[in-house]
């Protein structure tokens, strides 16, 4: 069954059952600064899961474009893709477990014609720490539907609990979540690989099972006390991978064998004169197809390649695809050809591919041209470096055993990056390929070796950034040790802390200094005595409440006098220019919870401050000045 047929059958199935079919949201989240990309169907509809009325009603369904950056390193196996379509249906306080599980079973067995005996299910085993019960209700429903007891497994929260933050411990205050029940397809022709354990089971990684759908029963919300309370309404949040369901409809364990990829894989086979079935090249076929498809959709949604944030991932996808095109022997001007094969398939479903096609083509061509200009010389130097090392260690390769360890360091990776723009991950892949090409006896680098090299690269990169920062005329202020994501989080938290202290202790509180690292924040303030435990708790609660409220963090540039008149806090011993930047936390300057003179950087929304704000220590610094050390945990 084609992917288009599966998609349409799914949407028609749930439309017949009273669901309004809504369009896919953009890959760039709207009003959700907590994540770079839309990675699940529920992301765009989170407000409705929390109780806001959806304009289309209490039942909706769609096929949502998704991108998961964390899956980039997994690409090359037979089941992962960075971009995918997620089939979803939701109940906002309407139907519950019995309808949801029965409908999904009916869809799979009647509409997609999947044999029921190939389906296995998993349920939540409960969590005593958080007083979360075992989901026997879902298991009993599956038994009534016809799933045999031997095909029902219970797993802990790591496998069968869903929230955007993961397991219950990691959920911030106010985050919704709940137990889930997953459905797996069994490839009975695939033998269990004992290296993954003595016995096979649905969550085994040997390849015999493939997850195809997940029904989340969202009925809990994390509280400020660290426990859970029931949401005002019980919600169903279902997500199922379109590509995976299409693959199992034909009993194929390789999702790259479905029709969505057939044109791209066929084009690559033709251009390379290589076989997809040749295990030496299979990974490259998959990476090229996946990465170019993902980059095309991201550019269509307005993401431009760059070295930061979303643009970094587009650039990394394109460059990694080019590297693997080279490995297939496919040279210049091929990226757009592969994108064209996907455009033909998806243009009728996603009109943005047509409206932005010229931009997509221009961007892909420009990125390929820029990367290839440094790619050849970079890999040439890298290959020469490896041969030099091998020759020095083993000058007579034709009769001696090739060394299993060739000393390429993280500093070498950084040199290749600085000189040729060669990303560390790509250079490491190429080093491994060249190294293994000397002998079948040489296996891939161990995970610990890869980590060591990438850590060394990160250290060299940090040194470079520190040198650059020292020459940037103190661009970043506010006591930050660096501009890492965590430090920026803590910098924003100091603004919340400053205002919370004033509200609890009084208007005499003034900032006297700060020091921020990726591990914690340190904040000095004027106050004549030690804070009581009650005062500390009140300050913590205020900060955590503002994080939970998901307030925007905004910047405005004002004449200094006008900024002072607005009530923005500032250091009285600091010299400011005629114009100052004011960061305020809230929807407007007038109603903001906090507003301060500041040069940044900050998060764009308090929701990004993942974790619970906790004062770890409060002590005296000098007469009338106290110091707080705090962290997000």
Automatic annotation (TrEMBL):
PROSITE patterns: AA_TRNA_LIGASE_II_ALA
GO CC annotation: cytosol
GO molecular function per UniProt: alanine-tRNA ligase activity; aminoacyl-tRNA deacylase activity; ATP binding; tRNA binding
Keyword Aminoacyl-tRNA synthetase in record: yes
One Gene Ontology biological process: alanyl-tRNA aminoacylation
Domain Alanyl-transfer RNA synthetases family profile: 1-633
EC number(s) given by UniProt: 6.1.1.7
A Pfam family of this chain: tRNA-synt_2c
Record-linked InterPro entries: aa-tRNA-synth_II/BPL/LPL, Ala-tRNA-lgiase_IIc, Ala-tRNA-ligase_IIc_anticod-bd, Ala-tRNA-synth_IIc_core, Ala-tRNA-synth_IIc_N, Ala-tRNA_ligase, Thr/Ala-tRNA-synth_IIc_edit, tRNA_SAD
Family statement: Belongs to the class-II aminoacyl-tRNA synthetase family.
Top-rank EC class of the record's enzyme: ligase
Upper classification of the organism: Bacteria, Candidatus Tayloriibacteriota
This protein's UniProt keywords: Aminoacyl-tRNA synthetase, ATP-binding, Ligase, Nucleotide-binding, Protein biosynthesis, RNA-binding, tRNA-binding
Keyword Ribosomal protein attributed: no
Protein's UniProt name: alanine--tRNA ligase
